[in-house]
Amino acid sequence: MGGARTALFNWLWARKHGGKMLLRIEDTDKARSTDESTRAIFEGLGWLGLDWDGEVVHQGANLARHQEDVRRILESGAAYRCFCTPAELDARRKEAESRKESFKYDRRCDRLSDADVRARVAAGEQFVVRFRIPDGSTEWDDLVHGTISFPNKDVDDFVVLRSDETPIYNLAVVSDDIAMNITLVMRGDDHISNTPKQIMLYRALGHEVPRFAHLPMIHGMDGKKLSKRHGATAVGDYQHMGIVPEAMVNFLALLGWSPGGDREIMPLEQMVELFSADGLQKKAAVFDTQKLEWMNGQYLSTMPLEKLEPRVTPAIAAAGLAPEESLRGKRYLALLDLLRVRARTIHDIVRQAAPYLSDTIEYDPDAVAKSWKDPAEAADVLRAAHGKLSATTEWTAEGLESALRALAQERGTTAGKIFQPMRVALTGMSVSPGIFDVLMTLGRDKSLARVEAAVARLTH
Predict the structure, then answer these.
(1) DSSP string, 293-360
(2) How far apart are CA 158 and CA 225, in angstroms?
(3) How far apart are the first and last CA of the chain?
């Protein structure tokens, strides 16, 4: 989810300023970079409608350049070979902990003579390459946080090349950024601690440092970092939860950015127009699922029916309510138009569509308990309603309303006392579109049959 939000902000920035958004798959960590995780990136961006410029760069394909850049900083004296074994480093770390001190590499290998280093390399001793942290401090003007400064003494001589000659993340991304002519790095603020190391590497490689923008983390409603315990965290998962991509893009845009003017529902073109560094926020963004569903409902209720229909129809068919080829025509579109008003997700539309597309219905137990509390009374109301409806010569909303309101007046009760038992009889649910819309959508024969079936259920 955080990656999708970051991709969106990069996309908005690039489109706003006429730049290019480049896509790089950072797959040097083979344990984490699986085919499945890479596929999820492409599927997520594709679903959101976010395109990128140029060819996709796979970081793992640039190993030779990464190694060459390490050689350059070694030759410049900005880095050195370290022959300390993992076991030796672990022992020194434990010693520091026993003294209640933080462990920091003591640069003992930086004090080896050139001849000693050459001899060890010739003997086949394994080594890593460490970057030598210079004196002073490292600072940058962050687009989100303003000036950030790190004392260099607080940064350890970090490894840039492992003993198997593969690069560490910080070296690989800097090498790739330089090769790709990156001018702005926009990412999550969990990377702030990496930035001084990367700035030092840009300078050691003789390259201009790009601008940085560190976006706030995304938290769940409990204030903790968004994770699987909060539900789905992959953006593509929401496609299968009845969320439309336009709503997800709009929702993600507001996680760490404010367009001003209390705007919430915005088309993508307006987001591009309004996007600026001034609106980027420092505080953590909160992923509110209810807000997402509300926003999704706004999009469902306003998008053109020709865009809504192909998203809903496969879901209705998958639910077994009707064959997909039968879901056509004006009456079907009118049904979707009727149902979407009360829907927050596509699944809501599917659930509401069941009574209109099926020959039989299932009665919701809660609806029955509430609206048919007294079975005999409910049956009596429905018999009377059936009589009024069957006597109605013209099956129109006006005629039906007149008949049922007359019934309520005759019985000395409110219209709601007639409508609610009818609603359950017609749809099996306690919530539906207006009762006259339901009657018109079901039609005369199906409506009367549903009322008769309800009376039979109540009396037997």
Answers:
(1) HHHHHHHHHHS-HHHHHHHHHHHHHHTTSS-GGG--HHHHHHHHHHHGGG-SSHHHHHHHHHHHHSSS
(2) 27
(3) 53
Interhelix angle for 415-427 vs 375-390, to 10°? 90
Tokens of 26: 């950072």
Buried-state track 389-406, b at ≥16 Cβ within 10 A, e below 16: beeeeeeeeeebeebbee
The helix (run of H) or strand (run of E) holding residue 174 is helix 169-179
Nearest to 256 by CA among 219, 294, 291, 293: 219
Phi, then psi, of 82 in degrees rounded to 5: -120, 120
Q: What's the pLDDT score for residue 185? A: 97
224 is written with which tokens? 């903790």
With beta carbons less than 8 A apart as the criterion, state whether 63 and 31 touch.
no
Q: What is the pLDDT of residues 97-120, one digit of tens each?
A: 999 988 999 999 999 999 999 999
Phi-psi region of 160 (alpha: psi -120 to 50; beta: other; left: phi over 0): alpha
pLDDT at position 359: 86
In one-letter notation, the amino acid at residue 224 is K
Cβ neighbour number for residue 12 with a 10 Å cutoff? 23
The pLDDT value recorded for residue 27 is 86
Q: Would you please indicate which residues are annotated as catalytic (active-site) residues?
A: 228
Structure tokens at 299: 């999009």
What tens digit of pLDDT does each residue of 230-262 get? 766 678 889 889 999 999 999 999 999 999 888
The model's pTM is 0.89
Q: What is the C-alpha separation between 404 and 359, in angstroms, rounded? A: 24
Cα separation of 436 and 414, whole Å? 16
Q: Which residue has the tokens 């008949």?
A: 403
Whether the Cβ atoms of residue 214 and residue 2 lie closer than 8 Å to each other: no
Q: Tell me whether strands 128-131 and 137-142 are parallel, antiparallel or unpaired.
A: unpaired
